[in-house]
Fold:
Amino acid sequence: MIAETVCSAVSAAGLGIAAVMAYRKRFLSAARLAGYALVPIGLVLTGVVGWAADTAFSLKAWVGFGLLGAAWLVFLGTRAVERRTGGTRKERKAAKAARREAVAPAASAPSLGGGTRQGAARPAAEPRSAAPAEDFSDIEAILKKHGI
Structure:
């Protein structure tokens, strides 16, 4: 009941100030202030203020908000742990299998992968030109300049 009275007083004061502004020929500001002044009384008439007051003073509502906050913290915690450990169980199993397949049993060095692709054509080799040699000379000049 107090919240409705306060909202009604705020709306009445805002409309009074808007009337004074309109009297002083500031119609745009007066219309804007009247719009803002009508919001609190509109919230009272729709029942939002009563609902908010009932929710603010309800122990059951605060316990519900606390549980929602706890759930949110659990979700954030699990996401942080999941990112740190490398994803879901399926992703970890796939990564472990990929590590085992990375080195062939009789090979002395790791393979470069891509050996399991079937029917994939290699891209055509591009002809080499004299331009890359000029790029290397620029790089060499920069390295010499820095003493490398």
In short: The chain has a mean pLDDT of 80. The chain has six helices and no strands.
